[in-house]
Amino acid sequence: MKKQIIIILFLSTLVSTLCGQEIPIENLKTQLHTNTRHYSKTILENEIKGINVEHIAITGENATLDYAKEGYKIIYLFVKGEGNVIIENDTYEIVPETILLPNIAKTIAIKTSKNDTLHYLKVSSKLTAQDLLDLKEFPIENTQKVYYAKFTDCKSYTEPIKSPNTTSRTILPNKYIPRIAMGTVQTKGPDKVGAHEHPMLEQLFLGLSKNNCVVYADDAKVDFPQYSVLHIPLGSSHSVSVEKDEVMYYVWMDFFRDKKGEEWLNTHKESDDN
């Protein structure tokens, strides 16, 4: 009898695996307990090799110091709250939906505006030996200077899988950090991003303010709300839909397996209105 139960459990697991995979998703904690000054949590841990994503929230009068880590490149995505980032003698205004790369800066100070709480993702990419070689070929201004931009100030592009009603922007072009690019997708329903596959890259989505749509990957689907992060299963046929009067607004983060895979970005055509 025990042997039969083990066989049934094994077959059940096998069938579940064959029937399709889930879309991993995690909601960010945007409501902190009273008197909490600093909160941090690793998001979707170990989902993508060499990539670590941490949700950090800070409040209070004192600045939070962050330090460079040898062998890594860091990206900050500020999604909620206001404040400032101080790097050496320069101050960068932080509002919701701002991206910042310290690049060669060793230390940065992050400070929240009075009576506010600043929420951001810290994305760390471990550099491979090839990445270190590729960095030497990148434009110096891309790797030495601080990169800072508000999402809405970034260049827009079009793509065949998206409708004319969709606004897409490249918030982090490639050639800043090896094998990484990021952008946003914004539209109002009814609308969709058509089904497509890209086995050459891993991809995370970050839901921005008011985002409320559905993500599909092969036979799986998941509700995708604001302030959540999900991982598109590698190589899956995936798409996104949004119902009437709802909002689709998210960041896509592309982590290419090698630099040849970046040719996928050729499907993005810069808009005429830039």
Commentary on this structure:
This protein has 3 helices and 22 strands. It has an 8-stranded antiparallel sheet, with no helix packed on it. Strands 2-3-10-5-8-11 form a 6-stranded antiparallel sheet, with no helix packed on it. A 4-stranded antiparallel sheet has the order 4-9-6-7, with no helix packed on it. Residues 1-19 have low confidence and may be disordered. It has helices at residues 2-18, 129-135, 140-144; strands at residues 25-27, 38-43, 51-59, 64-67, 72-80, 83-87, 90-94, 98-101, 107-112, 117-126, 147-150, 156-158, 167-172, 180-188, 191-196, 201-207, 212-217, 220-225, 228-232, 238-242, 247-256, 269-270. The protein has a single domain (26-270), classed as Jelly Rolls (Sandwich). A hairpin with a 7-residue loop joins β13 and β14. With 274 residues, it is mainly β.
Q: Biggest sheet: strands, sense, closure? A: 8 strands, antiparallel
CATH architectural name? Sandwich
| Helix proportion | 10-25%
* Number of separate strands: 22
CA-based shape: globular
Termini separation: 69 Å
How many separate domains? 1
